[in-house]
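Action item from last week, closing it out:
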Amino acid sequence: MTTKIGITGAAGRMGRTLIEAIAASSDDLQLAAAIEHPESSLLGADAGELAGLGKNGVVVVASLDSVISNIDVLIDFTVPAATIANVQACAEQGIGIVIGTTGFTAEQQAIIDTAAMKTAVCKASNFSTGVNVCFKLLDMAARVLGDDVDIEVYEAHHRHKVDAPSGTALSMGQVVADALDRDLDKVAVYGREGQTGARERETIGFATVRAGDIVGDHTVTFAAEGERVEITHKASSRMSFGRGAVRAAGWLKAQNAGLYDMQDVLGLKLVKNR
């Protein structure tokens, strides 16, 4: 059965990537709606032409409400305020939503949690298959190396990214903290300057770079005396995120109400570390 997908922020970098990813996917996934903000100069444009694919007959509209009855799942890579409005609309209509937006406040996350009681929500800091494999590797490395290493998270993104550290970097830090039974809110260090004193073993450091057109680089270092282990993921194209998000949309249609992530989509939560 065909899954009809809507995309918010359709004219943006990620929106165009998602349109392309749907076009390249299996026949049971279909672009059914493309939404932009009301002030966009691209309203009325053909979504396929926006993505450089030629006309596909899907016209960019200004309102989710006008097309929500035509879709099974919405994919949202926008900004927190817009995503919150969209997730509430989807919850009211029982429409699944894939959320790739990051940078939510605790209050906004609570709204998403409430929406997940009414409809299926898949929210992930990163929809790349490779990154989600890295999450499993980080959990394993943290459990094996334990308290004998210093742990640092490095991330780099393009100059237009507005939140820092990235959602993916925070997720990586959370995976490590959970594996070591640490409270990330208490042990995270976001940058260092001046006379900081010796490093405390339990801290998890974060370093952020914003420059040029970097799609997304993430490295977690486990550093001990005499050796270090580094787990790295580098994205060279947004298509890695687009393919994952579209895969999640197809999977989400068959799920009951609840809050899911990309680990659920890939079945990685069924893989137990030994």
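Closing note: The chain has two domains: 3-123+238-270, 129-235.
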